[in-house]
Design goal:
239 residues; 4-stranded mixed β-sheet; 10 helices; globular; alpha/beta; single chain
């Protein structure tokens, strides 16, 4: 068996719960085992997989670990350095999700390519010493964001960010799926216990949104506001 390790500061332990849940099917199919623990101020995620499929399993681990950096690390940086006075806490998270989603897949690919060279991955170390491009880009975004925002400016900003996106995203009874009908829960990396419909759509770089089944009035209002004619509601659900 081959061991693959992902470690981080203990305060980021919840990120590894996301990692474990996201990879559960991979572990079942490949006959791999895993553990999540705290030790010496570190959160440690261990995977034990058969030798002959170690590269496949490692690549899957790196794929989800890249999401942790692309969403959670970027979110924490934005939350610490962006005031966005004038917005509620919920609106700030929508704003941050929009910023994260503006370059999510590009960032994730770059991070993934860096991570996949390792079997022992220290996320904080790699972020601090090997992902300077990501850190600098995030810092540059922060420098360009005004200290005050109105709700109208938020709407204009998110609309602008999504207007050229082409990804189709599906919302079914409050659950969000990508174009290959894979359930998305990346917004939980923003410290949420449950996924946010609007945040998931934005992080997935949604450009067209199809909604089936009931969703919350606030989610519906924001989707209509941000996507306009690019959001489609099933006839039975449309208000």
């Amino acid at each position: 068996m081959t061991e693959i390790r992902v470690t981080d500061r203990a305060e980021n332990y919840d990120n590894f719960i996301y990692l474990e849940k996201s990879l559960r099917e991979v572990f079942e199919v490949t006959g791999s085992d895993k553990s999540v623990e705290r030790e010496g101020g570190r959160a440690i995620f261990k995977v034990f997989c058969p030798e002959d499929i170690k590269e496949t399993v490692k690549n899957e681990v790196c794929d989800k670990a890249a999401e942790i950096i692309a969403v959670n690390y970027k979110y924490k940086h934005l939350k610490e350095h962006v005031k966005a006075a004038g917005l509620t806490a919920e609106q700030k998270d929508i704003f941050f999700a929009g910023v994260i989603g503006a370059d999510f897949y590009e960032d994730k690919k770059y991070i993934y390519e860096t991570l996949k060279g390792f079997y022992d991955i220290a996320l904080d170390g790699i972020y601090n010493f090997r992902l300077g491009r990501i850190k600098e880009k995030t810092a540059e975004i922060v420098r360009c964001i005004p200290s005050c925002f109105t709700e109208g400016q938020l709407s204009d900003f998110i609309t602008f960010l999504t207007m050229d996106k082409r990804n189709k995203v599906y919302v079914d009874k409050g659950m969000v799926f990508d174009g290959r009908f894979r359930r998305l829960k990346r917004s939980t990396l923003m410290g949420r216990k449950e996924p946010s419909v609007v945040a998931e759509v934005l992080i997935a770089e949604g450009g067209v949104v199809e909604v089936d089944g009931e969703i919350g009035e606030t989610d519906e209002r924001y989707l209509k506001e941000f996507f306009g004619s690019r959001v489609y509601f099933s006839q039975k659900n449309y208000r």
